[in-house]
Design goal:
Elements lengths: L1 H7 L6 H10 L4 H13 L8 H12 L8 E4 L12 H15 L1 H7 L12 E7 L5 H12 L3 E4 L1 H4 L6 H16 L2 E4 L15 H19 L3 E6 L7 H6 L2 E5 L4 H10 L13 H7 L4 H15 L7 H15 L2 H16 L1
Parallel strand pairs: 2-5, 2-6, 3-4, 4-5
Antiparallel strand pairs: 1-3
Length: 341
């Protein structure tokens, strides 16, 4: 239907793209025809990917108000923004390939008959806070041209019987209808290990976990879980995950790259900023480095340029906030020299 509708409107849609649209957007004939016709009427720049534009138009048709437990997240980051070991990047590209080629491998080649836990692509991103897990989910969503939906766990988990399961089902249904990537941030709060039943609360929690297992198996899109504590995720979920991607703390070379990327091209930087020193001396995550860069920029905005003293002062402030007092004291000598200069 996608191929026929595109051809009748003078659009060229490859078999791979038509298959991906068909397998990830549960639309009927009228909705498909309407989406293609609407795109055909819109002005387009030469070279724009037709499949991605069709997905956006089709999803816009389904964009009713999101439930309180789900919110849409902007996808601004690309592969170049993601400073990760090549092994982790390879795993992320494999996730994208599993989504893109799902129909070809599972249906045409018959691998759907060999699946034990469902045809959806599920992944766990594990690592310390600030190592790029949520950014990686944004990169994947942008690469695939799909919407990124974040499950708000504070509005999903409920003390009332059956409400958590209802909220979980709503999140999956919305993601299915919109062909979106579904992200569970800090997932151990929802996907935690089941406990021995000692009271009604334990029984209720275990029922929620069991329902979540069933719902994930039925989901045909991409579901990503992020956690700082992989050991707290229930083993039953780990067995069902197709990918587990570890996000290690960045080494000195990676930290230097992150420091350089933390400042936009338009930001006025003084010549005295020593990115090599910052990368070698401070064992920080990308999230913390970005916070420091932002504070340094606000401190420097009335002076016209971001200098090393601004960066060091912002770093000291962030280290104190994190309780990293030894690392902060190690900066004092460098800060004193910069101040004297």
């Amino acid at each position: 239907m996608w191929s026929a509708a595109a051809a009748s409107n003078g659009l060229v849609l490859s078999e791979v793209d038509a298959t991906a649209l068909a397998s990830t957007l549960p639309l009927g004939p009228a909705e498909i025809a309407d989406a293609v016709a609407r795109l055909a009427r819109q002005p387009r720049e030469a070279g724009e990917p037709i499949a991605r534009l069709l997905r956006h138009v089709a999803v816009d048709q389904e964009k009713d108000a999101l439930p309180p437990s789900v919110r849409s997240v902007a996808t601004r980051f690309s592969w170049d923004d993601l400073v990760l070991a090549e092994k982790a990047k390879t795993e992320l590209r494999s996730i994208a390939a599993h989504f893109t080629w799902s129909a070809s491998v599972l249906d045409r080649w018959g691998f759907v008959d060999r699946l034990t836990y469902g045809r959806g692509v599920s992944a766990l991103f594990s690592g310390a806070s600030g190592t790029g897990k949520t950014m990686a989910a944004q990169v994947l969503a942008r690469e695939l041209g799909v919407e990124l939906l974040l499950v708000d766990l504070s509005r999903t988990v409920s003390k009332y019987l059956g409400e958590t399961e209802k909220n979980i089902d709503t999140a999956f249904r919305v993601a299915e209808r919109r062909g979106a990537l579904l992200l569970f941030d800090e997932a151990d709060a929802l996907f935690g290990k089941r406990s021995d039943v000692k009271d009604a609360h334990d029984r209720h929690a275990n029922v929620e976990v069991a329902y979540l297992l069933q719902r994930m198996e039925a989901f045909e899109g991409i579901a990503i879980l992020t956690t700082n504590l992989k050991q707290n995720i229930d083993d039953a979920f780990l067995r069902r995950l197709r990918f587990i991607v570890d996000f290690p703390l960045p080494d000195a070379a990676a930290r230097e790259v992150i420091w350089r990327q933390a400042f936009p091209d338009r930001a006025p930087l003084a010549d005295d900023i020593d990115f090599g020193f910052l990368g070698r001396r401070l064992q920080l995550t990308g999230g913390t480095i970005q916070q420091i860069a932002l504070h340094a920029a606000f401190a420097a905005v009335d002076g016209g340029a971001i200098e090393m003293r601004h960066v060091l002062a912002a770093t000291q402030r962030e280290l104190d906030k994190l309780g990293m007092f030894d690392a902060g004291r190690a900066l004092e000598g460098r800060a004193a020299r910069v101040g004297a200069a």
